[in-house]
Batch of 3 targets.
Target 1
Amino acid sequence: MDTDLHALVLNCTLKPSPGESSTDVITDQLLAELDSHGVTGETIRVVDYDVKPGVEADMGNGDQFPEILERIKAADILVFGTPTWVGHMSSVAQRVLERLDSALSETDDQGRPVMFGKVAIVAVVGNEDGAHKIIADTFQGLNDIGFTIPAQGGTYWNHEAMNPKDYKDLTETPAAVAATNKTATTNAVHLARQLSQAQYPGN
């Protein structure tokens, strides 16, 4: 089993630590699946950091996004987790994508965008509709930035409409979610290992 891959979770909940977060629950499950493949992992709860609005790598004035960006660059697999709010990704998740726009102008020594060769999967939780649209929007943004999306690389849980319930309050993981988590992480690891051996062509 390979143990040289590292995963980073960006938990884009709106709840600061130590508040309980359903996004934390599903991303922890994904980290456990990745660990079963020998992949190490860590989590950043983005709301605990001072991430300034903007599209530059460093917006100054105490901006802490540069620290997050360096940890993204050091990871092989990005797990992007967000709750659903009014049918959309959280404002924290949107800000992360906006800040990652800066990575488009940064290239390696062969002219490739710095996120080429990194794999990303997406997790969405909420007690309202919107997960498919959020995953689609996030996939597009991450792919534009240079991340590679594996087959069936999104997982989600929505409760039935007009009957609020949080993922963190479930007594067990629904079988369909558990199976999707397993598929997403298995495919992410497979793809990351392939890319670690055969990076995209340079210019």
Target 2
Amino acid sequence: MRVFITGATGLIGSAVVAELIDNGHRVLALTRSDASAQAAEAAGAEPLRGSLTDLDVIRAGAAQADGAIHLAFGNDFSSPEALATCIAEENAALTAIGEALVGSGKPFVTCSGTPYAPGRASTEEDPVPTDGPVGGRGRSVAAVLELASSGVRSSAVRLPRTVHNEGKGGFAGLLTTIARQTGVSGYPGDGTQRWPAVHALDAAVLFRLALEGAEAGTAWHAVADEGDQVRDIAAVIGRRLGLPVESVPAEGFGALGPIFAADQPSSSARTRQALGWEPKHPSLLEDLENIRA
């Protein structure tokens, strides 16, 4: 299968590209710079120059492929306005891919975050939020899943708060960056809130499984660790960086403060049973031991 991918050279995307190529697929990768084009080629993919705002390029890439995987996101969390811009750009790109695939029966796998379920771990049956700071992403994913009624085998892989590899990535990676900047490995509140996690190499397998066989309109959870307490995550970061570990007001985490402070464990029981997905790589707390001061 020839697969069009956005975000192909990021932490998750590079793992997905390798997983696809290792399993006999070909990859057409959207690349926004010479450096990312070279990285895509080195990984065995064919680069297609363009960014998430180049909608004609995105339509063309999706149209000439046998399926598509969307992974790109602006990741600008500096302010609510910057985050809203990233969400709007992603929504336009998803719409463009969908337009190119309508009526084709081809697979289209997008990504989102795992949802919040009060008092319990969320499951694949729970809806993603469509309001709040990242509600726009939830609405975009819902629109992709609705393409199932328009002849697209659309599905969504829901990613946990941290997708990690070699101690980098996700919300835990943001905590590490903030700790380096402030000199404190901080966590909001009492730190008992739980964040789910998955290794990027395990997540990549799930994206391939969804591409190859997920039914139209379905959502799946790439969750290996159901929920580590944030203070435990901060403790490893602090120890590895030689920094004090302390509670920090949620406002100190900027636009992501309310999200960082929320308890959001998640389950992948249905995904494992239905798709035969089984995580095999190190847990988040194990992987954070790769952080270097």
Target 3
Amino acid sequence: MDTQLHAVALNCTLKPSPDQSSTDVITDQLLTELASHGVTAETIRIVDYDVKPGVEADMGTGDQWPQILERINAADILVFGTPTWVGHMSSVAQRVLERLDAALSATDDQGRPVMFGKVALVAVVGNEDGAHKIIADAFQGLNDIGFSIPAQGGTYWNHEAMNPKDYKDLDETPPAVAATNKTAAANAVHLARQLARDQYPAT
């Protein structure tokens, strides 16, 4: 019987709720694809929480990162979603990676980093260039922290240069994006189930 998996999407938009977010649209599409494989899911819009700057798991009074980290720890698949701003991931996304850095020193009962065995997908939207580099930077950071990246685990949409348009305002999902979402989700589930059955060796 297949292992029951859970995913958490981190929406790193700069827009607080209830503002509409293109990042929400693409991460929701990935979660829908994951659900087709029996994966349960939830979304956290990071900007709605007080996530303090720093590189510790808990930055003290008022810091709400620990409750987010608890939900990441309980998940098998992480969906890391960010908009593109001035050619880079959002400042919120960068802060998430900085806060996740603390996981490098946290280990399980066999000495493995706690994020070993978890799979990460990256989703990027924007009306300017930058998606390939953002995905590369996010992959490197997440992999350093301990997440595994499935084949073709990044999905993105960029509108043509100098002609702004938001992903959330499209009449339909471009076929290439829909196909990439489908493949990324299927490969993430496959890898997560493999790791659930056969975790990385103890260090």
